[in-house]
Write a structure and sequence with these properties.
Elements (H helix, E strand, L loop, with lengths): L2 H9 L6 E8 L8 E9 L5 E7 L3 E12 L2 E7 L2 E3 L3 E4 L6 E7 L8 E8 L3 E9 L4
Parallel strand pairs: 1-10
Antiparallel strand pairs: 1-2, 2-7, 2-8, 3-6, 3-9, 4-5, 4-8, 9-10
The structure holds copper (II) ion.
Copper (II) ion binds next to strand 8.
Length: 135
């Protein structure tokens, strides 16, 4: 057995504290914007924070929330999302989402995209999202 690997397993148990489910994004076109959605499940006792998302698909990636003030509906950038311990948080249309701006290429129905999610506790998590039309 690889000794380094054995040491790493002792230091970092492979038990997943954060699980990402149902990652999907809206089809869109080059130079336009689109949104990425997923469910974050925090299995640990302690809260974790999503503070950055990286992608090669877009020139800019931001964490957004949707807000309404009186008659006004809009969305704006937030710096992070906190997921309390033993709970889940859903990014979905009309709520929090990951905004992909200035797409580098078309995203067609069925296309797959790779993303790196950065959490304060869980570190980097790689996910794959599939493009599909919202229901
Ligand atoms: Cu947005």
């Amino acid at each position: 057995m690889n000794t380094l690997l054995a040491i790493l397993f002792v230091l970092f148990p492979s038990e997943d504290k954060i699980e990402i489910k149902d990652a999907w994004m809206r089809p869109s076109s080059e130079k336009m914007a689109t949104a990425l959605y997923f469910i974050i499940e925090n299995k640990s006792e302690t809260a974790d924070t999503l503070f950055q998302v990286d992608s090669d698909l877009a020139e800019r990636v931001e964490i957004h929330e949707t807000y309404s003030e009186g008659e006004m509906m809009g969305m704006r950038k937030v710096n992070f999302i906190v997921i309390e311990g033993k709970s889940s948080f859903e990014l979905k249309p009309g709520a929090h989402h990951i905004m992909l701006m200035k797409l580098k290429k078309n995203i067609n129905d069925g296309d797959k995209g790779e993303f790196i999610l950065h959490f304060k506790q869980a570190g980097e998590i790689n996910i794959t999202a599939t493009a599909k039309m919202p229901k």
